[in-house]
Amino acid sequence: MDKATIRDVEVQGKRVFVRVDFNVPIEDGRVVDDGRIRAALPTIEYLIRGGARLILASHLGRPKGRVDERYRLDPVARRLRELLGRPVHKVDAVVGPEVEQAVAGMGPGDVLLLENVRFEPGEEKNDPALARAWAGLADLYVNDAFGAAHRAHASTAGLAQFLPAVAGLLMERELTVLARALSHPEHPFAAVLGGAKVSDKIGVVARLLEKVDRLLIGGGMANTFLAARGYRMGSSSVEEDRLETARETLRAAEGRGTALLLPVDLVIADRFSADAQRRTVRVEAGVPEGWMALDIGPETVERFRAMLADAHTVIWNGPMGVFEMEPFAAGTLAVAQAMAGVKGTTIVGGGDSAAAVTKMGLAERMTHVSTGGGASLEFLEGRVLPGVAALLDREAVQR
Ligand code: ADP
Ligand code: MG
């Protein structure tokens, strides 16, 4: 990676402002999936061991620039204390005298957690006044929030204008794994794309089409491709305004000689519900009016499995069906299991896909499960992530 990381700079005794991504699901005051907190532990523990004073900052949810009791970080602080096995001082302010006082009282290895940065209107506006106020608290800025790196906010990008800025270890790993897969993939290279909509992912489809040998499309986005091929899709979600885009993609794949696989059969339901009536249909038969495709069918699963079995690099983004409902989770589960068996690099990007793999207990069997949904998508599209662009180049840092 060409960006400087915490390993390239001196941290001993330094006050370090660390932007983490602790945007985790919370129910009844408890963190129900601590994956993102765990993912930040290597950076936090590295800095503690190195004798830094840590000022941790994160957003949670979308409080829209004002205090919202539902989005306080206290449950996160509790979980972080348990995981670190050491005290974490949580303050109820994001910036200002209470925070300054807390920082002044810190010793080497101490950990402070600020309140939800999105309680401040300046955060999402990337207000330099807010960034400057935070910069006044610290000597070094570390961005470990890959999941927020596609946002140019005060805590994800703005701060880098006022402090030396380096990547944390999670940020480094995310960027390295994704970049290597795109620039030096081992072939056969396959991508599995699914999820709700074509419009969310058309940039990724286009870019991956230039790189992969096999492109497998399932989930809701396959509906639009199937409709573009002329199949009847009944009441399935089809984006009519993307039919031409889908046709262009199909032509492009043909032109390049890329194997582009669409579902050959579908699990359909008579309504969007776990207890709907269910059937499997072949795509040529079409989806009857009033019915909708909610998962890929068993024959499609077999074809996808065969395309993944001998792949050496697989990137997966987007579930194959409405996996949140058990009757429509089989396609997603099968892809996750097929990936778990791949001998090579397997990368899962996308918030819902990562949640699916975690829920299925297969996260450990992947090379990498990205903590960044939107950020991993934008990275795969080839876009510059503002939170990464703001960091110092490695060459610029002399130890
Ligand atoms: P990710 O977060 O992994 O990028 P998306 O957000 O694009 O994935 O899509 C995830 C959502 O797509 C899930 O909530 C899932 O229920 C939905 N989905 C998948 N297949 C279908 C389908 N055939 N019809 C409707 N929704 C679908
Ligand atoms: Mg999603």
TrEMBL record:
Keyword hit for Oxidoreductase: no
Assembly behavior: Monomer.
UniProt: ATP binding residues: K201, E324, G350, G351, D352, S353
A single cellular component GO annotation: cytosol
Domain of life according to the entry: Bacteria
Protein name: Phosphoglycerate kinase
Catalytic activity entry: (2R)-3-phosphoglycerate + ATP = (2R)-3-phospho-glyceroyl phosphate + ADP
InterPro entries linked to this entry: Phosphoglycerate_kinase, Phosphoglycerate_kinase_CS, Phosphoglycerate_kinase_N, Phosphoglycerate_kinase_sf
Single Gene Ontology BP annotation: gluconeogenesis
SUPFAM superfamilies documented for this protein: Phosphoglycerate kinase
E.C. number: 2.7.2.3
Subcellular location: Cytoplasm
Keyword Phosphoprotein assigned: no
GO molecular function: ADP binding; ATP binding; phosphoglycerate kinase activity
Protein species of origin: Kyrpidia tusciae (strain DSM 2912 / NBRC 15312 / T2) (Bacillus tusciae)
Gene that encodes the chain: pgk
One Pfam family of this chain: PGK
Entry keyword set: ATP-binding, Cytoplasm, Glycolysis, Kinase, Nucleotide-binding, Transferase
Principal location class: cytoplasm
Biological or metabolic pathway of the protein: Carbohydrate degradation; glycolysis; pyruvate from D-glyceraldehyde 3-phosphate: step 2/5
Highest classification ranks of the organism: Bacteria, Bacillati, Bacillota, Bacilli, Bacillales
